[in-house]
Design goal:
The complex is a heterodimer of chains A (112) and B (111). With 112 residues, chain A is an all-beta fold. Helices cover 0% and strands 54% of the residues of chain A. In chain A, the strands form 2 sheets. In chain A, strands 2, 4, 5, 6, 9, 10 and 11 form a 7-stranded mixed β-sheet that branches. Chain A has a 4-stranded antiparallel β-sheet with strand order 1-3-8-7, with no helix packed on it. In chain B, 0% of the residues lie in helices and 56% in strands. Chain B contains no helices and 11 strands. The radius of gyration of chain B is 13 Å and the shape is globular. The chains are: A mainly beta (112), B mainly beta (111). At the A-B interface, strand 4, strand 5, strand 9 and strand 10 of A face strand 4, strand 5, strand 9 and strand 10 of B.
Chain lengths: 112, 111
C-alpha cells in the first residue's frame, strides 16, 4: 500500500511569506502528526490531528497551524516566515491511539 | 517532561563490528520505545518498536532491548556493514501520538 506522501518535497521562501505543506496519510490511518527537524533542536513535535480535531500541540508559536480534512489528509501552515523556520518538516500517520508511526519523506523548507 | 538522550552523537567503526547504541529517557511511564533510521536528507524509517510490556525485539541483525526501570534502551547491530551508515534515533512515546526524540547518533561504517 502507498506510504505517507508529503508535498512539496523542497521549497524556498523569503522572510515574511507564508507556506502550506501537505501530508496524505496511509489509507485507513486517521491520525496525522507533524514534526520539525533542525540541526540544532533535532526532531520536535508540532501537533497531531485525529478525525479533523487537533488532539495534541507542541511548544511552537501561533504562526504554526494545521488542519485535517475529512479524508484524513492534513496541511500545516507557517505564517510570517523567519529564518529559523528553515527545517525539514515531517509528517507521520498512524491508526487510532498510540501506535506505530509511519513517516513521510519530509518537506524541506528553506527561508531566505 | 520526557527527555531522551543519545550518547555518543557520532560513531565511526570498521566493517564487521558488533555495535551498541544507547538511548536513555527520564520518564519511565512510556507506552513504547521506537528506534528509527534516517538517511541524509530523507525521512525516518522505523526499525524496531518495543512495547512497554516487552523487554526486547529482534529484526534480522538488529536487536533492541528496553529497561523501563533504569530508563534505558539499547540497539544492537550485529556484523555492521557500510550500508548501515545512517543516523539512528530513538523515540519514547507516551499515551498519545507524540514522540519525544533523542538527537540521534550518526553512524559511519567504514569498508
Amino acid at each position: 500500500k502507498a506510504g505517507v506522501t508529503q508535498t512539496p518535497r523542497y521549497l524556498i521562501k523569503t522572510r515574511g511569506q507564508q507556506v502550506t505543506l501537505s501530508c496524505s496519510p496511509i489509507s485507513g490511518h486517521r491520525s496525522v502528526s507533524w514534526y520539525q527537524q533542525t540541526p540544532g533542536q533535532g526532531l520536535q513535535f508540532l501537533f497531531e490531528y485525529f478525525s479533523e480535531t487537533q488532539r495534541n500541540k507542541g511548544n511552537f508559536p501561533g504562526r504554526f497551524s494545521g488542519r485535517q480534512f475529512s479524508n484524513s489528509r492534513s496541511e500545516m501552515n507557517v505564517s510570517t516566515l523567519e529564518l529559523g523556520d528553515s527545517a525539514l518538516y515531517l509528517c507521520a500517520s498512524s491508526l487510532a491511539g498510540p501506535n506505530v508511526l509511519t513517516f513521510g519523506a519530509g518537506s524541506r523548507l528553506t527561508v531566505l | 517532561k520526557q527527555e531522551v538522550t543519545q550518547i555518543p552523537a557520532a560513531l565511526s567503526v570498521p566493517e564487521g563490528e558488533n555495535l551498541v547504541l544507547n538511548c536513555s529517557f527520564t520518564d519511565s511511564a512510556i507506552y513504547n520505545l521506537q528506534w528509527f533510521r534516517q538517511d541524509p536528507g530523507k525521512g525516518l524509517t522505523s526499525l524496531l518498536l518495543i512495547q512497554s510490556s516487552q523487554r526486547e525485539q529482534t529484526s534480522g541483525r538488529l536487536n533492541a532491548s528496553l529497561d523501563k526501570s533504569s530508563g534505558r534502551s539499547t540497539l544492537y547491530i550485529a556484523a555492521s556493514q557500510p550500508g548501515d551508515s545512517a543516523t539512528y534515533l530513538c523515540a519514547a512515546q507516551g499515551g498519545s501520538e507524540k514522540l519525544v526524540f533523542g538527537k540521534g547518533m550518526k553512524l559511519t561504517v567504514n569498508p
